[in-house]
Amino acid sequence: MQLGMVGLGRMGSGMTGRLREDGHDVKTYDPKVESTAGSLEELASQLDAPRAVWLMIPAGKITEDAFQELLGILEPGDTIVDGGNSNFRDSQRRHAEAAERNLHFVDAGVSGGIWGIKIGFCLMVGGDDEPVQRLEPIFKSLAPPDGYSHVGPSGAGHFVKMVHNGIEYGLMQAYGEGFEVMHASEFELDLHEIAGIWRYGSVVRSWLLELLHDAFEQDGKDLEKIEGYVEDSGEGRWTIFEAINESVPAPAISAALYARFASRQDESFAAKVAAALRNQFGGHAVKPAEK
After folding, report:
1. Tell me, what's the pLDDT at 291?
2. Has residue 117 got a pLDDT over 90?
3. Residue 168 among the catalytic residues
């Protein structure tokens, strides 16, 4: 099957490689790397109708600009697929805008990271039945066995991926806290070894744990080669917003997001306030600030 891929970063390049290995004809556009096309317009000209163009670029303005440009380039019956981490409400809006031009819009939540080219990408797809069914050969080539589902109408794919990433926040934080307790203990524990044995038979075994085991090998037994600065790309925040809107308690995901915020502080002003108050009401000692 033929597809136009926009964006050849870590995910887009891996997906393109996997599709080509499975016999698909993938045309590409990325201004930063060698591509088959030098513009979105040229990319569209390289595809046969009905065209399918997959956006695998950062969510937000970059995706919006590319989407709006494609609205003016593609023809009725063509399909735009957004595989980035867009907000599901933006995807619902884009679906409606595309429909006004008689174009299809499909939102595809993609998980798999840099390993996807080898083991496959989990795909959570939202959109109308007709374009999704037509593109199923693409989805099935990208995904491992049983790793693809048409989860619902427009927006559902990115909604499910949003919650998926919120859960990921909580899992990562739980591993982080548990390993910190062991790291700080009176025992001289080999955390690399412990991460290794927990991969087999343990109820907390997971792919994330396998990756942590690899990280101890690459970054040292105390992870001394990396800083504990943790970014977030938005999905955890959106998950919490939706939990609030739906009156659903999500304390673990919320705490994990706040822990990421805390990781970026050189010094916590809140901790200063707490230390000052303890000193004021109880005479507890404070540690003077270094000059």
Report:
1. 61
2. no
3. yes
Q: What is the pTM of this model?
A: 0.90
The one catalytic residue in 97, 168, 210, 242 is 168
Give me the mean pLDDT over the 167-179 stretch: 93
Is residue 142 within 8 A of residue 18, CB to CB? The reply is yes
Beta pairing, strands 122-126 & 148-152: parallel
The reply to whether 291 belongs to the active site is no
Kindly state the percentage of the chain with pLDDT values over 70: 100
